[in-house]
Amino acid sequence: MKLKPTSLLIAGALMGAAVLPVQADPMVDLLKVLRDKGTISAEDYSLLANAAKAKEEKVAAEKEEMVSIVKETEKKSSLVTLDSKGLNFQSADKSFTANIGGRIHADYGFISDDYFDRNVANVNEVGNASKFRRARLGMEGTMFTNWLYGVEVNFGSNSSTEFTDVIIGYQGFENTTIKLGRHKMPSGLEELTSSNRISTMERSNPTNTFALGRYNGLTVATKGSNWTATGGTWLGDGVSAGENSDKDSDYGYAGRATFAPIQEKDSIVHLGLSYNHIKYEDTFSSDSLANNNGRLRARPNNNFFDERPVQVIYQGTESADTYGLEAATIQGPFSLQAEYFKRELNRKEFKDADVDGWYALATYTLTGETRGYRDGVMRTISPKNAVGKGGFGAWELVARYDELDVWDSSAAQEGLLVHSGSTNNNFNNLRGTKSEIWTIGVNWYVNDNIRFMANYVDADIKSDAANNAEGDIKAFLLRGQVAF
Amino acid sequence: MKLKPTSLLIAGALMGAAVLPVQADPMVDLLKVLRDKGTISAEDYSLLANAAKAKEEKVAAEKEEMVSIVKETEKKSSLVTLDSKGLNFQSADKSFTANIGGRIHADYGFISDDYFDRNVANVNEVGNASKFRRARLGMEGTMFTNWLYGVEVNFGSNSSTEFTDVIIGYQGFENTTIKLGRHKMPSGLEELTSSNRISTMERSNPTNTFALGRYNGLTVATKGSNWTATGGTWLGDGVSAGENSDKDSDYGYAGRATFAPIQEKDSIVHLGLSYNHIKYEDTFSSDSLANNNGRLRARPNNNFFDERPVQVIYQGTESADTYGLEAATIQGPFSLQAEYFKRELNRKEFKDADVDGWYALATYTLTGETRGYRDGVMRTISPKNAVGKGGFGAWELVARYDELDVWDSSAAQEGLLVHSGSTNNNFNNLRGTKSEIWTIGVNWYVNDNIRFMANYVDADIKSDAANNAEGDIKAFLLRGQVAF
Amino acid sequence: MKLKPTSLLIAGALMGAAVLPVQADPMVDLLKVLRDKGTISAEDYSLLANAAKAKEEKVAAEKEEMVSIVKETEKKSSLVTLDSKGLNFQSADKSFTANIGGRIHADYGFISDDYFDRNVANVNEVGNASKFRRARLGMEGTMFTNWLYGVEVNFGSNSSTEFTDVIIGYQGFENTTIKLGRHKMPSGLEELTSSNRISTMERSNPTNTFALGRYNGLTVATKGSNWTATGGTWLGDGVSAGENSDKDSDYGYAGRATFAPIQEKDSIVHLGLSYNHIKYEDTFSSDSLANNNGRLRARPNNNFFDERPVQVIYQGTESADTYGLEAATIQGPFSLQAEYFKRELNRKEFKDADVDGWYALATYTLTGETRGYRDGVMRTISPKNAVGKGGFGAWELVARYDELDVWDSSAAQEGLLVHSGSTNNNFNNLRGTKSEIWTIGVNWYVNDNIRFMANYVDADIKSDAANNAEGDIKAFLLRGQVAF
């Protein structure tokens, strides 16, 4: 651009350096002045000005190359992050991500068992014990942006299968996630809330008895800003050799819908409902209709028991329909949450059985934090002042009451088995039909990844069967938990 | 360098900035002109020129330091890559590498079983079921450039041991890899092709019966541009307490050689042969020569069965020699592949038994891709147009016929057991001696890491034993597979 | 700053570029000279000097921004390191760290068993076998600087539980580490030395019988420059259903203190002592006082045996007190190490039993390296000349003699069981009460991560019980080991 030197300089002086074009070079301006004043010849001006321009261009080119390398390097170096969200990797274009991590739930139980002592011979009364309720390692991620995968293995000592989630998924449709493999089927707010985030150490008996857990199947989950809808279907593992069976494994389908009419920062109202149908494997032998399809049983809300004090088996059960209702509200440091489940067991040759259960949970954060909520499930409490950052973490009080009643007096008139279910089928072992359980607890969230829990559980076992199998089991439980 | 100012400037003007020496500084050139013209004194010239040079040197030094830091940082940041080849790490000098990853094979089977129904009491007829055929996580890598290690754990539900490969290795000799630990012994093209890459959901019965799988031993593998040669030896796990045994575990040795006379981009011809010798543990009790050493059995080409419809036990087997022949060709989108196995069981006191099996596989890629091949094994198909990148992935049709015949009528005259092999040794369970199986399938390679498979398997079970144990098992199988 | 041009230039010329203030600009100096000489006007000088300063400021600002980005990037890129210390991650501020790795111990045993042959019917005599003594994968790290976590899973075939360490910990108190979860309780030098670093393939019988292994509990470990003190308490796993029991699981507490009076680079003297108390679960049935609490048994110092040739059960054992003494010295390439254990079993209704054992180990590094030692445990030998770096690695000779005597003749008068302990309780299986074992070995440390070991073990089994159960078991053992 051929500007008159004087005007260029005036412009520069008036507007400051920021306005000078990038190519502005004081050297060239000086050369112009010197040429105009005759101090240097036009030739010299030409040569020197070209040399100056060439040098500026070289400097600019080197700078651009450096900037480019630094940007590339910066992109490459942002592949790995390690923080309270865990160990995460992503490719430069973010089309591939991976996370490697796990969780540890170390439980310690001090139990006073006045049920098995009275009612059941040959089964241990649990006293004090330790247990790794969960100890998991896994890897998950995305590929080519839209595809998901995940494998998580559970080494905690209560698991018959060795993995939790094993999935291949697709998230290319807007707001929709499709998953294939072993993962939680849609059923129940307490069930779907991560075990790292549930308010008590164990989920309630109604949840553990009626909500679906993990199955190997297909789910399609879609959502909006304040609602979710999920449908799923699954197919069971098959039957191990030697059992008397006939063709197909268990299978089923399920659906859950949630809606949050109020969803603000410190005020949430959640409503949900779910339904599922299980078609049981047809394992009836010729003579008897006895099998475990219609077996309903529960622990006394602590996981140190393998034997269950509550257990009823409705023989001849072919399928089951389960309905669930959920309601919850979070108001600042308070929250209330309740669910109701009802199950109908459809039986062959015998009267169908209707059973149900419910729980109500209240929580209060002494340190003022609000429970998290997103996409239809509860999330964690993140301490405002973590231990080590000038604070005492977050402290939370919780209380829950749950009832499970698996007795249907009319259906129980026929085809009923109220026995141990243990391999020696000892009919002298008496089990209850109903549990009424109080759980009160204190949670200490040290930081975003670690919490300690203390629960006191008072489980009252009752029986509507003619076996007077009653008693109670009290437990004081402690947990150290880390998610990494 | 003392150049006459005018010549320097002329040189610069003629050749442009690139030719100017790095130290060329328009400022110094200007100073020279001004000095020559008398505008500034020689003293001023000295001082100003030195100052200019010092500034240029400082700028150059700062730039070099920055470049050095950026290069160091760039090296360090290239440690981690995450892409379709998985999550990989390497040290700056590449002497250490590591990979963390795994695979998921989620299978769903819909099975019509007309064999066990007719012939075998007390064994379940499999119907519809789901199964994690493989769910693996592992870590492997190199150390100090020449040393290898790897541990991979399999959580899929068909595995009695919990790991797949567990190795320490050395690759310091040119083109040679030595491995110690549990890994595949050299035997069979279909066997050595990764389960992520085999063309059908299950390998053929001859491969599963006669090829060696993974053992804990030592292999030495060497190769050239179109050939491979591998030798191995292994030692078994030992005998668990309580079984009647005498000293040594199984052991054996094996060798495999391959040659690709034609090995071009779209045209491959592969030839291979293998041999192995197994010396069985001497577990004979005093009276009987019955043990499982001479047990030959097979599934109906689908992994949902634990009980095998084909099973023969040649008692008194001390050792076995197995020969394998392989031939394959890949021509653009087509491929043909076949193997033949023959095994001789060497028996104590009874006549030796000769049995064999073979398969022939044909594949055709509708979307035109070519099957991969390298170092004597088949590799994957990489879709030209992956889903999500404007394409439908790669689609492949496959068909395989395999025959397994474990009946040697002459050897079978003596020391033969055609029974269930289940722990209660029920001789009323009849098994076949021969399988003839058609498998046809469609594979959909979504992208480099994910494929879906559908197989239809028609397994015809026949018997040359005097037990008329015949029938067939048809299965429709689906698989979702991800390698990460 | 208004300096007279001449003085500025003189200053610059005298002191060189380094002394020029950063803002010094030869261009501005030239402009001053030209202005002073009248070649350019004061106006022109103003404009040009401002333009030159503005340009310098812009260049400086760009440079600072680049430096800042490069430093950020450099920090971020130092997240990942992969070297002989393994695969390590850390956050930019180092408050989060993580390590993913594992180990493989691949063992091969060639065993000559002259004990079980003579004394025990129906138990296999082990001959030659392979075994993955350890095959582990795990992840551990720190969070928010002071918190620790770790999960490691063991897939080697000798483990009844599936994990090794599973911990949550805190290291915020100076020089103190608190751990909760499953990890080694404080007891024994050989026990606490990592299996990657012990001098022989198996720890001695006294260590394996008397030292504590891993339990689920709490430890507090503190240390100084040459001493350590650790206390711990634990609670057992509970009792599985079906066993006759009464309330509480095993629990116990333990302490260990070490002191290194001499701790120089090539000369170490280590002293240590430990104590632990185990309160056994009260599993006595009404009639008999027989249970496994007082069972003391040992292998012949090789892990290929599940059945133990040494075994005594003192019935009615309620608790046990164990005392341990440790002494070791490292002098350049030599080292000597010895431990003595004594255990008192406190019995209900029967006389208490006192048993003991000891070992003495000598090592010598042919290639001159010194054994490592830190914080009260032995550490590895790091080869001076690793294989591949111009050397043959490090070569070490080791020899150990250990004695275990679980016979207390006076206590053995009553409530004694010297039987197999196998489930069929066959009293015709005779076991010894004493082992005297020589282990000699050669270790080849290829590099910092890989070693090979060869051991020859001569185990003499004797019996002070009236059963003459004597014999010996010789074994030649090989191990390939990698830590990654």
Automatic annotation (TrEMBL), chains A, B, C:
<dbReference type="InterPro" id="IPR010870">
    <property type="entry name" value="Porin_O/P"/>
</dbReference>
<dbReference type="InterPro" id="IPR023614">
    <property type="entry name" value="Porin_dom_sf"/>
</dbReference>
<protein>
    <submittedName>
        <fullName>Porin P</fullName>
    </submittedName>
</protein>
<dbReference type="Pfam" id="PF07396">
    <property type="entry name" value="Porin_O_P"/>
</dbReference>
<feature type="coiled-coil region">
    <location>
        <begin position="45"/>
        <end position="72"/>
    </location>
</feature>
<keyword id="KW-0732">Signal</keyword>
<keyword id="KW-0175">Coiled coil</keyword>
<feature type="signal peptide">
    <location>
        <begin position="1"/>
        <end position="24"/>
    </location>
</feature>
